[in-house]
Design brief:
The chain has 75 residues and is an all-beta fold. The chain has no helices and 8 strands.
């Protein structure tokens, strides 16, 4: 079976994170991104409204779903 470059990730084995879309941060779930809880600074995000993305460990990328991170696609 021959292998070709994966067309989804262009052979990198990684794609943009589907949780943060490559931004590396997501809205804080406690304050919904506002930075405030009942008018007080959110203690979860320290009032920033943003948290590190847990899906990609704040790298902005995850393993390609098409090639399973190998960068190669079976044809």
């Amino acid at each position: 079976m021959s292998k070709e470059v994966c067309t989804v990730c262009n052979g990198t084995g990684k794609v943009k994170c589907d949780e943060c879309w490559g931004d590396c941060h997501i809205d804080c779930e406690t304050c919904a991104g506002s930075g405030l809880v009942d008018g007080v600074k959110c203690s979860e995000c320290d009032g920033t409204g943003q948290m590190d993305c847990y899906t990609c460990d704040s790298t902005g990328e995850i393993k390609c779903f098409q090639c399973n991170g190998t960068g190669k696609a079976s044809i």
